[in-house]
Amino acid sequence: MQFFFRLISYLFYPGTMAMLGVSMVSAGETVTVDLWLLIIAGFIVLPLLLLFALFKAGKIDSIHIPIRGQRNLMYGISVGLAGLTTWLLFWQMGQMVFIWSLCMTTVLAGVGFCNALGLKASAHMAGSGGLLAWSFALAMPGYLPGWIWISTVCICCLVYLARKGLSAHSHLELLVGFCLGFILTFAMAT
Q1: How far is CA 4 from CA 18, 35, 88, 150, in A?
Q2: Contact criterion met (CB below 8 Å) for 32 and 179
Q3: In the chain, N or C terminus with fewer CB closer than 10 Å?
Q4: Long-range CB contact pairs, 43-48, < 8 A, 24+
């Protein structure tokens, strides 16, 4: 069961939520290969490479559940990478992808801010909550079919079970992360 929980945690990493959100709006806007590479690098590859480099350097004790003080460094650098990616997308991309990228960067910054204050929030749940809000905001005017909104509800449930199953967070931390991601994204997307 631990393998399944870790697999879910890796598959639905917050950066993956950024990719799924771009996929939701890419039908209405042309996303070229170089922009996909930028999005993948800024939201997934570079943050993960940084995580592994910090682990190898001994700055992080565990890739799966780092302690709070070690998380803050990761969030700061991830927000910087996501912010740079969002700025580059602003110059190259349509409005919907830019807004989504801005939402994800804001959610990451919100999680980092909460953790810096000592209020531990789940970044995984913030990402999936943001994706749910994004799909809900797009489904309301009929931009997306309803099955996509339902699938994001399933993703949220899987991520919640996986992070709780790994003992990475308490129920409160998972709910705080979800609410943070959902509220910030929905407020910006509507």
Answers
A1: 22, 31, 35, 22
A2: no
A3: N
A4: 43/14, 43/15, 43/18, 43/19, 43/81, 43/82, 43/85, 43/104, 44/13, 44/15, 44/16, 44/18, 44/19, 46/81, 47/15, 47/74, 47/77, 47/78, 47/81, 47/82, 48/13, 48/15
Interval 34-86: pLDDT, tens: 777 777 787 778 877 887 888 888 877 766 655 656 666 676 777 777 777 77
Give pLDDT tens digits for 121-139: 888 899 899 989 988 888 7
SS3 57: coil
Give the pair of three-digit tokens for residue 147.
């099955």
**Virtual torsion, Cα 164, 22, 83, 124, nearest 10 deg:** 0
Let me know: does 96 contact 28? Beta carbons within 8 Å.
yes
Give the whole-angstrom CA distance, residue 94 versus residue 103.
15
Q: Can you tell me the distance from the alpha carbon of 77 to that of 15, in angstroms, rounded to the nearest whole number? A: 13
In a 3-state reduction of DSSP, which class is residue 60?
Answer: coil
CA dihedral sign, ordered 69, 61, 163, 75: positive
Parse the chain into domains and list their residue ranges.
2-189
- Amino acid letter, 143: Y
Torsion of CA 62, 68, 72, 73, to 10 degrees: -40
